[in-house]
Each structure stands twice: as C-alpha cells, then as structure tokens.
Amino acid sequence: MRFIGDRSILGECPIWDPRLDTLFWVDINSRLIHRWDWTSGELSSRTMNGRPGSIALTDTPGVLVVAMEHALLILDWGSGDVTTRRDLPIAEDSVRLNDGRVDRLGNLWVGSMHVPASEGRSVGSLFCVRPDWSARQILTGIGVANGLAFPPDGSIMYFADTMELMVWRYTVDSEGHLGDPTPFVDFARLQLPGKPDGGCVDSDGGYWVACVYGSALARVTADGLLDRVIPVPIRRPTCMAFGGPDLATLFVTSIGGGGQYPEFDDEPDAGRVLALDVGFTGVPEAIFRGA
C-alpha cells in the first residue's frame, strides 16, 4: 500500500490509460485534473475554470472528455487547450455534473447532483451521450449520481444514488436503453459502513464500491453476494480504478478536506491517491470515440 500525489479537497474519478501508463484523476473543489506517470512518478496538473466532476479517455492519448458544471469539454493535456463540445440540459445553477463512465459501446454516461448534497434535494439526472455527441436524459430524481460501472460484456450497468444508500443494476441494450432497475448493493440491508460512492469492475465480473464515510471498500460478485469488505486508512474513499501495466493495482481517490469538508489530524494522507493490491485485476477502461 502506498499513497500518490498531493492532497485533494475532493478527489474523484481515477482513470487509467494503458497507452500512456498514466493515471488521471480530478480534484473537484480545487478545479484541478491530475496526471501521474507510472514509470517516472512525475505528477502534473491542469487548472479548469469550473468543477470537473469526472473524466473519460478518448481515441487520442492525452486528450480527455471532462464533465464539468453543465457541459462536456475536451481537454488536450499537451497544449492545455479546453474546448466545450456539448451543453447538457441542467436548469438549476446549484446542480453540477458528477460521476461518469464510458460503456463498452463507447457511450458516455454522466450523472448530476445538487450542491451541497447535505440539503437532500433529489434533482439530479443521468445522461447518455453517444459518440456523435447527441444526448438523452435517461433518469431523473437522483440525489447524488455515483457508482457507474459496466462489466466486460457491456450488458449491465451499475449505478448508485449515494443519498438512497443503494447501488442499482440495470440491463442496457446496444442503443443505450435501460431495463427496469434491480437493487444490487443495499448498504442498509448488508450493514455496509458509510455510503456508496464511485465504483468499478474487475476481470472476474466483481463490482467494487467505495464506502465513503465508512473507511472501507466493498466487493460484490456478479450474483449480488457480498464478497469482501476491505478497511482503508481514510474515512472518505470516493472512487476506484484498476491500473498499472498489469491492471493489478487498485487506485482509490478520497476526500482530503477543506472548505465544506472537515479535515482530520489522524489521517494525514487523506485526499491523496491510495494504491493497493487487492488480489484482483481490472479490465481496460472503455474509450469515448466522439472527440
């Protein structure tokens, strides 16, 4: 186990790019996107003019889709150029884009949330954006959109509403249409610590979810059985991604504190990226092909 990078206020959305042997992640409240090189250990950052909720890989290494505030943008890491590509229909200024993930067909799914979440307003949505940049609003009435992940065969979508303490399982077809939701990870029923935040899948089909405020990560089998709960030395893990050259390292982002988030003296590494071996390997991150 080791920690990478500096402390984030609100670290989220780690993404591994195997073409570059590089990890990307965001610090939402600091308006930063970070990049860490596996071979050299070099850390670099780009400052955005809004809060980047999530990022996704594109066909071009080093060019990212950024879901920020109410829009989708393209960030060219090398030049630093940022281009707005698609505004999404978000009516309230208090709502921003949050968790996002590309499915196995190349569609980008991205959800939104009201800020601050402590006000308990379920006014978020889930959007599906096709490679031609057309967008559909798929779900509404969401508290905090999180937990998006797609197993290797692409026929299932996992999606969490943090406020509901629930991860849902949906079937998804080739056009991006969802079947009826099925409860998949019920934090209350399973007595899991904390709340569901970001998720990912491993090569065996297991679903991993960060137990934010619960100092733990949980793995659930494709059949919905709780397989293991792994304690971590940070109270607020937020999201995960498998990476490294063999996809055998689990990278975990977290809340470090600052602003609306309290800081704790007994977790000096909170907000940094935790890298650990959990005995599983991941699957390559899907690529959005609309850039």
Task: Summarize this entry quickly.
The protein is mainly β and 291 residues long. The protein has one helix at 187-190, and strands at 2-4, 11-17, 22-27, 32-37, 43-47, 52-58, 63-68, 71-76, 82-87, 95-102, 108-114, 124-129, 135-142, 145-149, 156-161, 166-171, 182-186, 195-201, 207-212, 216-220, 226-231, 237-243, 249-254, 273-276, 287-288.
Break the fold down into its secondary structure elements and pairings.
Elements: E1 2-4, E2 11-17, E3 22-27, E4 32-37, E5 43-47, E6 52-58, E7 63-68, E8 71-76, E9 82-87, E10 95-102, E11 108-114, E12 124-129, E13 135-142, E14 145-149, E15 156-161, E16 166-171, E17 182-186, H1 187-190, E18 195-201, E19 207-212, E20 216-220, E21 226-231, E22 237-243, E23 249-254, E24 273-276, E25 287-288
Parallel strand pairs: 6-25
Antiparallel strand pairs: 1-24, 2-3, 3-4, 4-5, 6-7, 7-8, 8-9, 10-11, 11-12, 12-13, 14-15, 15-16, 16-17, 18-19, 19-20, 20-21, 22-23, 23-24
At CATH level 3, the topology is: Neuraminidase
Silhouette:
globular
Strand content: over 45%
Order of helices and strands: EEEEEEEEEEEEEEEEEHEEEEEEEE
The CATH superfamily label reads: TolB, C-terminal domain
Account of the 3D structure:
Helix content is 1%, strand content 50%. It has 291 residues and is mainly beta. It has one domain: Neuraminidase, CATH 2.120.10. The strands form 6 sheets. A 5-stranded mixed beta sheet has the order 9-8-7-6-25, with no helix packed on it. A 4-stranded antiparallel beta sheet has the order 1-24-23-22, with no helix packed on it. The longest helix has 4 residues. The termini are far apart.
